[in-house]
């Protein structure tokens, strides 16, 4: 399954949220950094120890027509077990103008063949060269929002925009994920206001977020932090949500191994 994650204007932490979900995903997963503004995971979570232009190089390969065959070679391990892998984003955001998003969407959808899921961090909606075809092809589209009025209003506009202009027939259902709920609105209030399902929430947890966004030391209790425990629950709910919506199109699959329980280095 291909699942698109994006943010509206003013929303906090879409990349952090997508990475937390990928590390907590109950099945093999690829986190694809498609933000046209560039990739952040290698510099942040990966502490800059490895440089790779996964999406940029892959999009060059795509022009030669062999994108699916080459995709695997561009994936890096996000955890020790290698169950979560990363397609690093653009090292140079000017490359976004040259990415054939339709081809990329097809290739990512092809990895999501029933055993591996793809979480696509699409960045902020309405950014220039936004990967609209990926959103259109996704089994589910998750809009990340904060919980204050400004963020919820931006999420509402984003959802209307997705429905009105971006979405093509067949686009997966839209759901919302709240980062830092209760500041001041609750998940329920936000769901009611936006009239879309709230797939879950990630609490404000600056220490754990810094591990994910900036490569701060993880420590032994990383998997048990409020943020990672919430991510585990949201990941499971998001798999179920997306699969139920996709059920009419694809055969049922069965869940596999346990969620990742520790942070690990990025490996090629
Ligand atoms: N749940 C959270 N609790 C506390 N801080 C958070 C949380 N999520 C993200 N942050 C912090 O917010 C900042 C921005 O996070 P992140 O890079 O994930 O945002 P983004 O929406 O992907 O931004 P960009 O538009 O630059 O791609 C980081 O410093 C990160 O540590
Ligand atoms: Mg980001």
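^ Assign residues to that structure.
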């Amino acid at each position: 399954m291909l699942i698109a994650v994006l943010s509206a204007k003013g929303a906090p932490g879409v990349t952090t949220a997508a990475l937390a979900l990928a590390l907590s995903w109950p099945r093999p997963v690829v986190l694809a950094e498609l933000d046209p503004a560039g990739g952040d995971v290698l510099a942040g979570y990966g502490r800059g120890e490895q440089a790779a232009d996964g999406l940029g190089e892959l999009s060059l390969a795509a022009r030669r027509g062999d994108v699916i065959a080459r995709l695997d070679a561009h994936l890096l391990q996000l955890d020790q077990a290698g169950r979560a892998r990363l397609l690093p984003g653009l090292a140079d955001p000017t490359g976004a103008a040259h990415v054939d998003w339709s081809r990329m969407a097809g290739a990512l959808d092809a990895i999501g063949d029933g055993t591996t899921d793809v979480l696509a961090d699409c960045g902020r909606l309405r950014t220039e060269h936004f990967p609209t075809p990926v959103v259109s092809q996704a089994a589910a589209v998750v809009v990340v929002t904060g919980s204050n009025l400004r963020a919820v209003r931006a999420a509402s506009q984003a959802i209307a925009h997705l429905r009105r202009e971006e979405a093509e027939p067949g686009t997966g259902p839209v759901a919302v994920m709240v980062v830092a709920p209760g500041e001041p609105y609750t998940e329920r209030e936000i769901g009611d206001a936006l009239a879309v399902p709230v797939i879950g929430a990630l609490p404000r947890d600056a220490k754990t977020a810094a591990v994910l966004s900036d490569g701060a030391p993880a420590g032994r209790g990383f998997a048990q932090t409020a943020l990672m425990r919430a991510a585990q629950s949201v990941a499971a709910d998001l798999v179920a949500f997306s699969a139920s919506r996709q059920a009419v199109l694809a055969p049922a699959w069965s869940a596999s191994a346990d969620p990742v329980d520790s942070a690990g280095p990025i490996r090629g």
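DSSP finds nine helices and eight strands in the chain.
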